[in-house]
Task: structure prediction
Amino acid sequence: MAQVALSSFIDNEDKNFRLFNHVIEQQNEIDMLESQVQSLHAEEKHYTHKVGIGREKNRQTMENLESRFKETQVESQFDCSNVELFIPSRKGSRVVLAHTTIAFPSNSPASCRIAVSHK
Result:
């Protein structure tokens, strides 16, 4: 009877030791996976922040371009009903300034037609 009890005790201890080792392996795997999850969260946060900075930079660039476009539109609104140009041209060995007038019948840039007359 003592031999049976001892054998049963040893079998139970072996079973407990195997289960204990299994629990330790599972805990190690859980720790490794939690570490990977933390690493992925940190990477996600980094790229989310980077994308946010990129969006802000794009928004600022767009605002800057819109502002510059509006300034250019204001600067380009001048009376273009009659523009005079002096264009250098060669006649033989000397340079002569040719006087040219360009008339725009409308101040609307979309409907400007150029009529050139030489004086």
In short: Confidence is low (pLDDT under 50) at residues 108-119. The chain is about 65% helix and 20% strand.
